[in-house]
Amino acid sequence: MKSILTVVVVLALLWLALSILGAVVEGLLWLTVVGLVLLAATVVYGWVKSKARSRS
Q1: CA of 17: how far to CAs of 13, 29, 30, 43, 46, in Å?
Q2: Is the pLDDT reported for residue 18 higher than 70?
């Protein structure tokens, strides 16, 4: 459980950093969108995994 949480947190921070970089660097709006989509997907994946573990 702890390793999954660590991976999710690291990925979420990576996607957040990419989003901020895309917003700061002019002309990289696509990087912001990709980063935010991946951030949302990572958070949802982590939430689903944690719910599944708590039920069993």
Answers
A1: 6, 13, 14, 15, 18
A2: yes
